[in-house]
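Reopening closed ticket. The problem is back. First fold of the pair:
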Amino acid sequence: MTVPPERTCILSREHGSREGLIRLALAPDGQVLPDIRAKAPGRGAWIGVGRATLDTAIAKGKLKGALSRAFKTADIAIPNDLSAMIADRLQRDFLDRLGLESKAGKLQTGTAKIDTALRSAQVHLLLHASDARPDGVGKLAQAWRVGRDREGSGEGGLALPVPRTILSLALGRENVVHIAVTDPAAAGRVRDALDRWRHFIGPDLTPEPCETASQGASALRAGTGMAADDKDFA
């Protein structure tokens, strides 16, 4: 079995997989830019810390020192909004992954369809928009537990750091509030992208897991339209 190559975070010195860390690349003009998919040519440097730690390292000059050593040059420029750029591209990477899995037919939307899939144990990952109603989250969590024969466990889906409007745009569908990934390999790919994004933005911007209706995402509604199969408990 091939062991995935590891990289070392230039700030924490901790080791991690390429998929778990974030690559920074040096542009020809000396700008340091996020290379989320690790495809840019040339020398790269890897970070595995969260946004708050990165911001502190930037403010104290630690990131510039670490990058100068990694790139073997002091002629570098760190954008003031580097952390925001990374967060934005991690979000885009996650949403792109959802879009790819949707086109491949490996995820379901629509409350009624998801409920049926959950009760027949066809769902490997359950996701909710940040503005999903707690009662809808709770009902789907119950269906998840019934399908897995784990009633009383408190298990459920995950609240995403984006509202339904963003999910709807990403998937090209109306009123996407809940998402069920029905293929195990696809669920792994989606979860990897989500975990890397959530790890970077930190707990302050990452909703808690949706284990029960009372622990669901905020009920603040960002969308206005509702698809027919999401009317009952979006």
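Second fold of the pair, where the issue appears:
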Amino acid sequence: MRWSDLPLDPNGKTLRQFAGIWLVFFGGLALLEAFGRGRTNLGISIGALALVVGVAGLIRPGWVRLIYVGWMVLAFPIGWTISQLMLVVMYFGIFTPIALIFRLAGRDPLRRARRPGVESYWTPKPAPADLRSYLNQF
């Protein structure tokens, strides 16, 4: 993903979905703070924020556009970093050890190793038993 892929001009449906998720997430956070942790004032404040932004975004999606775009711009570097780290972990943690094991075991499924004394590396393909098998690919 590149910076140019960021949705800087989202449509109304996306903004409504964002407002609904905002309402659910911050509403749940408000309930957790108020009833779970006993911080009533903080819970009321977060709940008010959830209601104001969530309901306003559901009624008029354009009102939450700035919040949505800001959120996406702030989250982009985190997502990019995590995806790059996951690629590095997969490459050096999974593929490289498997390749080393295959190389140490002498596995060569593509028969790329040189074979001295061989005139050709061509492998003949067996002829089909029935020509109609060409029509049945699977």
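Update: turned out to be a display glitch only; the data is intact. The chain has three helices and no strands. The chain has a mean pLDDT of 90. Please close again.
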